[in-house]
Structure to design on (94 residues):
């Protein structure tokens, strides 16, 4: 779901290898791909039309898997890909 305040969809989003979506799931894969730059739970929730709680749950799972890290920036927590998350997102087919 795209709203006026959300980022436009990627022109040519990468297609995940089937094993990747099976292992982490479609929504988590989408969120991991979205983290081309640090983003907050609220930003990702607005961008993808998900509840902040749902996004938080997925980001926690990605963090527990070592694919994203979290850091506080004033009043919000920003998530970004770890080197492992970057490596995983680079494994895709066109």
């Amino acid at each position: 779901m795209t709203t006026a305040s959300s980022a436009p969809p990627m022109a040519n989003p990468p297609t995940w290898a089937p094993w990747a979506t099976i292992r982490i799931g479609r929504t988590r894969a989408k969120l991991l791909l979205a983290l081309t730059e640090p983003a907050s739970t609220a930003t990702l929730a607005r961008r993808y039309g998900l509840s902040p709680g749902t996004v938080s749950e997925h980001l926690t799972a990605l963090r527990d898997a070592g694919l994203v890290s979290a850091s506080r920036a004033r009043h919000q927590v920003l998530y970004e890909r770890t080197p492992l998350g970057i490596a995983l997102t680079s494994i895709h087919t066109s």
Observations:
- The longest strand covers residues 68-73.
- The helical segments are 18-24, 26-34, 41-48, 52-64, 83-89.
- DSSP finds five helices and five strands in the chain.
